[in-house]
Specification:
single chain; mainly alpha
Length: 111
């Protein structure tokens, strides 16, 4: 019964809307070459970082960023409370690499 329920939830989340949004962002990500492109993508396409809900890529990315930058829990909380476009460039670049370039749903987007 639980397996059927999980399959049902997964199929509901993989709607044509999700698929077309994913394809839209995947196409946009192919145009990203420079660090400036990555930052612009981050600033303008917040939803792309949350499409991969099955693997919780945003939460996993924040955990990895916390370790990489040796952040305290207070520093991490401050980051999470920031407005999207005001986040530090180092986080934007890390998030793009983690969630988009190497993300489960977006694997293979870079040329």
């Amino acid at each position: 019964m639980m397996e059927h329920r999980i399959r049902l939830l997964m199929s509901e989340n993989l709607t044509p809307d999700w698929s077309s949004e994913f394809e839209h962002y995947k196409k946009l990500s192919r145009e990203v070459v420079t660090n400036e492109d990555m930052i612009n993508f981050f600033n303008h396409h917040q939803k792309a970082f949350y499409l991969d809900s099955f693997s919780s890529s945003w939460a996993n990315m924040m955990d990895a960023y916390e370790v990489k930058e040796s952040l305290t829990s207070d520093q991490l909380n401050k980051l999470e409370e920031m407005q999207w476009q005001e986040m530090p460039e180092s986080l934007k670049l890390f998030a793009y690499d983690f969630c988009i370039k190497n993300g489960f749903c977006f694997t293979g987007t870079s040329s």
